[in-house]
Structure prediction request, 251 residues.
Amino acid sequence: MTLASKKVMITGGTRGLGGAMAVAAAQMGAEVWALGRDPDDLAAMARQSAHIHPMQQDVTADDAAVRAFDTVLPDILILNAGAVPHMAPVHMQTWDAFSGNWQTDTKSSFTFGTAALTRPMAPGGLVVTISSGAALAGSFASGGYAGAKRMQWFLSNYLQREADELDLGLRFLTILPLQQFRETEIGQAASSGYADRLGISQDAFLDRYTNPLTPAGFAAHAMAVITDPQYSDCQSFGINGAGIERLDKAT
Prediction:
């Protein structure tokens, strides 16, 4: 698949991994709608490329997907929005803190993912969910984060099943970053939180990754998963500094 002239929409597309994917897609010829809430972040993305169109949007709103799709119906939808988890032992969390990622990450995946079916997106459309390695291994110091990210993965599979039954011609993928990032807000929060729990420095925690991965490196791998036919045999992929790993076979 080529991204030239494709319409790409990215939730949480103005910073971190989302911002890196927006830039990568624009460099490959796509017209990119980067959704975010912060005006400064939106303005900064607009300066990155004439092919990036910032869209101010609270993706946790019940009607966020409808309003976004009223502006542009994407060919490729990347569900990347996520909240910074509250880092604390489970017994020191409130329910509001514990469930924060369910209210942002999982809810936005649900509302935008179901809108892809009900609108629907055009045949040949692609919906990519950015989950987390925590969906595989758990995340004992970040409340409900791991469960929320696992549910995103489940949702992607559920939506693929329904798209197939409705004969919509849509493909749903899940990509799991398998390591933390020095450069992102979530990576900073998580790595410092786990370093504290382990009694080591944040640098020592992050140095355990023998192949460091930057947001730009992640974005390059994600674009390969999206565009390269060799990855059409799977629905779920992990990405780390060593490259791309197939996590399951497409059904």
